[in-house]
Amino acid sequence: GELAAIGELRLAGHLAELAVLAAPSDTSAQGVRAEVNRERVAAERSLMAKGIFAWAQHESEKAAGQEESR
User: Fold this and answer.
1) Left (φ > 0), alpha (ψ -120 to 50) or beta: where does 7 sit?
2) What does the alpha-carbon distance between residue 5 and residue 59 come to, in Å, rounded to a whole number?
């Protein structure tokens, strides 16, 4: 998202989460949530936070049909 592009990952994460909660079947919202959480994993230093963001990314990728083979 645009907020993530300017470094506002925390706000972008909250807004993406709200969008998915409002419309869980919206694959576009799920895709944005996955993208934002992917960026949050890369930027985060805390292992626990990385795990939470990676989980959210994976769940949104599945919901959006973007899941890669692991």
Assistant:
1) left
2) 22
Q: What is the mean pLDDT of the chain?
A: 91
DSSP conformational letter for 46: -
Q: Tokens in use for 6?
A: 């300017």
Rounded CA separation 58/67 (Å): 7
A 10 A CB-CB count for 14 gives 13
Cα–Cα distance measured from residue 20 to residue 41, given in angstroms and rounded to the nearest whole number:
19
pTM as predicted? 0.85
Q: Summarize pLDDT for 15-38 with one digit per residue, the tens.
A: 999 999 999 999 999 999 999 999
